[in-house]
Amino acid sequence: MQDDLFGNAVPPPSLQPQTATASHANSVSASARKGSKRGEDAAEVRPAPAVEAWRELAQRLPAQLRFGVSTWSYPGWDGLVWDGAYDPSALSKNGLEAYHRHPLLRTVCVDRTFWRPLTASQYAAYAAQVDDGFRFVVKCPANVTDAQVRGAEGKAREPNPDFLDPRLAIEHFVQPTLEGLGAKLGVLVFQLSPLPLGWLGRPTLLLDRLGRMLAAVRQALPAHAPVIVAVEVRDPELLGQALADTLKAHGATFCLGLHAKMPPIEEQLPMLRALWPGPLVCRWNLNRIFGAYGYADAQKKHDPFNAILSEDLHTRAVLARTIRGITGAGQPAYVTVSNDAEGCAPLSIQKLAEAIAA
């Protein structure tokens, strides 16, 4: 496995904030920025005409690569994704059909499932808004992947007796996604929330339980379905050969989680080397300058999410290099980006696409 496949040659990261840029905010026309306020009952959300300018770039990207965002209900994407300033509720309900017409956006991460399981009919409503070539990345509910039962503010209240329960994983997650999304299901993500010391101190027991759940998930999937099963962790202590062996034994991969709770991207890439050959699943969630719990600060700085204000050149460069290497070897890649990464997920994706196609 060549080291440069995963971007080792990129210089080490700087922890200093990059100079903020807002070039897009100046380039969007005044009429596009104003838009027209659309109410909750808007029957149709239309794509921005400007998205067609990215079709030629999209055609130069590897066919195995799918970019997407983590949530699509942002009015600030007027002129970037939408053709006006729609109400967030209208975008949440009807925006996916317009979103998927953007040439660079061929997947989306459905994050809301982490907080509450969705039904097969809810998944089917999403599937009905996209064409047959689109694929979904879906997160397993926290009632399966969080070792703690948490209160409304996220504080742990008590141990979760259903942590990594195979039956709940199938009933609350795998079965409804398969039934509702069908062939449009691309990736099942099992994000393990930060673990208490009681679990971190017993890694063998933890990985045994994770393995039993993954075995049940793989058994529940159709034999030849190209669905990727990915595990994301929030504890750096878990990165190592033992986790890689567990994932490999059950046909799963490691999901790169890019945020300050985990090490920088180049320190997570050894997990992918240990699993090679295999796909890339990456969720670029939060710029490291905001710290491990800086989501509120990132939202405050980046709102209305229509410009890159916290540019992260290092992460973008290593990620682009990694994507090129993995897709160049014929493996699929799913990369989803949050507004909290640089300020505007669609613009971050455009810059990644330009770097890959260059």
From TrEMBL:
<dbReference type="Pfam" id="PF01904">
    <property type="entry name" value="DUF72"/>
</dbReference>
<protein>
    <submittedName>
        <fullName>DUF72 domain-containing protein</fullName>
    </submittedName>
</protein>
<feature type="compositionally biased region" description="Polar residues">
    <location>
        <begin position="16"/>
        <end position="30"/>
    </location>
</feature>
<feature type="region of interest" description="Disordered">
    <location>
        <begin position="1"/>
        <end position="46"/>
    </location>
</feature>
<dbReference type="InterPro" id="IPR002763">
    <property type="entry name" value="DUF72"/>
</dbReference>
<dbReference type="InterPro" id="IPR036520">
    <property type="entry name" value="UPF0759_sf"/>
</dbReference>
